[in-house]
Design a protein that fits this description.
Distance between the termini: 52 Å
CATH class of the largest domain: Mainly Alpha
Number of domains: 2
Structural class: mainly alpha
Shape: elongated
CATH topology of the largest domain: Tetracycline Repressor, domain 2
Strand content: under 5%
Radius of gyration: 19 Å
Length: 198
C-alpha cells in the first residue's frame, strides 16, 4: 500500500536522521528536534513512527548490528584455511565497527542505559554472532584441518569477551582494530585443531 511505503520511507529518514545526530552530538546530546530536523519531517511525524528517542535508537542499533553480521557472513570463505577464516572474520568485523566509530562508542556507552531493552539487544547480538562462530567451525575446511565444532557456551564466551575488549578500546578512545591481534590469537587458541576437544 502507498501509505505503508510512505511510512517505511519516513522511518528510514528518521533512523538516518538519528544516525547523523549521533555522529554530530552523541546520543545524550541528541534531541528529537535534531532528529526531525535532519530527517526533514515534523515532530508529529516522529511520534507517529516512534514513541520516544530510545525506541528509535533501539531500531537503529538492531539494524546496525544485523548489517555487521551480514558483512561478516559475506566475507567468509568456508573453503579457506581455518586460520585464514579466523583472520578474515575478525578483520572484517573490526573494520565494520571502524566504519562507524560514533555508533560503536555510542553502543558501548549508551546501550546499558536502555535497561532491559538494551540487555535484550546485546544478548540477541551476542547470540547471533555466537551462532555464526559455531557454524564457521563446522565448515568443510575447518573440519578437514581437525577443528572440532565448538559449543554454544564456548562461542558465547568468545563473542562476549570480544565485545568487552572492543568496548574497552572504545571507552579508552582506541580504534577497534587495535585489539585485532589479541582477538585473533585467543580465537585461534580456543578453536584451533590443537585445542582440547570440547
Amino acid at each position: 500500500m502507498p501509505t505503508q511505503g510512505v511510512r517505511a520511507d519516513t522511518r528510514r529518514r528518521l533512523l538516518d536522521g538519528l544516525a547523523q545526530a549521533i555522529r554530530e552530538k552523541g546520543l545524550r546530546g541528541t534531541q528529537i528536534t535534531d532528529i526531525v530536523r535532519n530527517a526533514r519531517v515534523s515532530n508529529r511525524t516522529f511520534y507517529e513512527c516512534f514513541p520516544d528517542k530510545e525506541s528509535c535508537f533501539t531500531e537503529l542499533i538492531e539494524e546496525w548490528m544485523l548489517a555487521i553480521l551480514e558483512i561478516v557472513q559475506a566475507a567468509l570463505d568456508p573453503e579457506a584455511p581455518w586460520d585464514e577464516q579466523v583472520d578474515t572474520t575478525v578483520e572484517t568485523y573490526l573494520a565494520a565497527l571502524a566504519e562507524n566509530p560514533a555508533m560503536t562508542v555510542t553502543v558501548t556507552r549508551e546501550l546499558p542505559a536502555l535497561g532491559a531493552r538494551g540487555a535484550v539487544l546485546q544478548e540477541n547480538d551476542i547470540d547471533r554472532m555466537a551462532t555464526f562462530l559455531m557454524e564457521m567451525t563446522r565448515g568443510p575446511a575447518m573440519r578437514r584441518a581437525g577443528v572440532e565444532p565448538i559449543t554454544l557456551d564456548t562461542a558465547v564466551m568468545l563473542i562476549g569477551g570480544i565485545a568487552e575488549i572492543v568496548d574497552r578500546a572504545a571507552r579508552e578512545g582506541q580504534p577497534s582494530e587495535s585489539v585485532g591481534q589479541t582477538v585473533k590469537t585467543v580465537v585461534k587458541r580456543v578453536i584451533g585443531p590443537s585445542a582440547q576437544p570440547r
